[in-house]
Specification:
Length: 251
């Protein structure tokens, strides 16, 4: 793939030999199979908080659907895979308003749609169309919600979510923090796609051991394009003196 064919300001990376493109929206595009992959949409997070008495703006599902509609319109995927936590809680699908339900049905029409189970959502996602699985292997890739532990064969070819990666990187004027794709060529963890979903710094202990530090690249979501940054540019994620590990994230 040449840079001219990378769509929508995306950033190219490989996982287990498969070419993927991280998009500014937070979705990943797998051109060889025309598959669009999104993680952690957390639909109905606003209404989930409202049920517990704390008010968030209730527009999150619509905003996330708009983002997904734009990606689907631009790329016409043959298949969409949600990597889990599509809904913020197991009752999210039944709270989905008719308008949002219709928009989701329109997105699902004419293509394969696979919901991978998350830890926030559950069996209820299949009630709104599409197939459901705890994980799935397609070609050289494996799709699951929570990343497998670091030094296992299960990590090879994995696309996962759950951790909502973000990174702060040094720039000429100081530093910026953005949600990001994180990959070392063996596996990739996708940023959260949901409009209200937060991010967790790659230097956090939750990421310890998941990546070969010397090969880690963070693909940061910019407004119009994705920026690939090596591990040495990530604040708090330095390569150790022997070049094999992390200073802080391995604690
Ligand atoms: Fe999760």
């Amino acid at each position: 793939m040449t840079s001219e064919t990378i769509p929508l300001g995306g950033s190219r990376f490989e996982v287990n030999g498969e070419v993927l493109v991280g998009l500014p929206s937070g979705a990943a595009w797998w051109p060889a199979t025309r598959t669009l992959i999104v993680a952690d949409m957390h639909f109905e997070k606003g209404s989930s908080f409202a049920r517990r008495g704390s008010l968030l703006p209730p527009f999150d599902t619509s905003a996330t659907l708009s983002r997904l509609e734009a990606d689907v319109a631009a790329l016409a995927p043959a298949r969409v895979i949600s990597l889990g936590d599509a809904f913020h809680d197991p009752f999210g699908p039944e709270r989905l308003e008719p308008g949002a339900r219709a928009r989701l049905a329109a997105l699902q029409s004419g293509r394969e749609w696979l919901w991978i189970d998350g830890n926030h959502d559950a069996a209820t996602v299949a009630e709104i169309g599409g197939e459901r699985a705890s994980e799935a292997a397609i070609g050289a890739l494996v799709f699951r919600h929570e990343p497998a532990p670091g030094d296992t064969l299960a990590a090879i070819g994995e696309l996962a979510g759950h951790l909502h990666p973000a990174a702060r990187v040094r720039v000429a004027s100081g530093s910026v923090r953005r949600h990001c794709f994180a990959t070392d060529g063996r596996r990739a963890i996708l940023p959260a796609y949901g409009s209200l979903a937060g991010g967790l710094d790659l230097a956090a202990p939750a990421f310890a051991g998941l990546f070969a530090a010397e090969r880690l690249v963070a693909h940061l979501l910019g407004d119009a394009r994705v920026h690939a940054m090596p591990a040495r540019a990530i604040v708090g994620f330095g390569i150790s003196r022997d070049g094999t590990g992390r200073r802080r994230a391995s604690r």
